[in-house]
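Hey L., structure's done. Input below.
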Amino acid sequence: MQTHRHAHLTITGRVQGVWFRAGTKETADSLGIKGWVRNMPDGSVEVDAIGAMDAMGQFIQWCYQGPPGAKVKSIDIEELEPADDPQGFRILR
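Output:
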């Protein structure tokens, strides 16, 4: 049975300029999630996250809400094969 989940998320809506990346990092760090988050030129936010199944469920649920000021329209989730855990969770520029 798989104990970890690796997902790539594309989050659309009002998700830039509302501290979405910082909130995502804070949430990931608190749940032990590894990976990265970055703003995209089209106004979306892209996330690549790896973590324990239950933690990933909580993390993705947070992404549907986002920080105060965010209005998440949709999240496209691509499930990936588990990969080597990256070091920590980073905000990419």
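The domain at 4-91 is CATH 3.30.70.100 (Alpha-Beta Plaits). Helices lie at 20-31, 53-65.

-- N.
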